[in-house]
């Protein structure tokens, strides 16, 4: 099983490759968190449950 999704001349990934992979993972995680937050926000607004968001209705 290949852990690194890219091929390098050496067997070990270069720091640039590692940074690229970690950056991609971080961006995906941030996007997932943002999506989850927006879904929660929409759900609360749809139910009129703005108190849960700390807002005064």
Shape field: rod-shaped
- Total strands: the figure is 0
* Poorly predicted tracts of residues: none
Q: How many distinct helices?
A: 1
Largest sheet: none
Percent helix among the residues?
A: 55-70%
CA(first)-CA(last) distance: 54 Å
For the CA atoms, what is the radius of gyration? 20 Å
Helix-strand makeup class = mainly alpha
Mean pLDDT metric: 74
Percentage of residues in strands:
under 5%
The helix-strand sequence is: H
What report would you give on this structure?
- With 57 residues, this protein is an all-alpha fold.
- The chain contains 1 helix and no strands.
- The relative contact order is 0.08.
- The mean pLDDT is 74.
Question: Would you summarize the structure shown here?
Answer:
This protein has 57 residues and is mainly α. It has one helix at 15-47.
Spell out the blueprint of helices and strands:
Blueprint: H1 15-47
Please give a handful of descriptors for the protein shown:
single chain, mainly alpha, rod-shaped
């Amino acid at each position: 099983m290949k852990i690194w999704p890219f091929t390098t001349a050496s067997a070990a990934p270069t720091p640039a490759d590692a940074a690229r992979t970690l950056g991609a993972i971080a961006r995906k995680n941030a996007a997932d968190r943002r999506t989850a937050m927006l879904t929660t926000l929409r759900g609360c607004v749809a139910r009129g449950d703005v108190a849960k968001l700390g807002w005064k209705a």
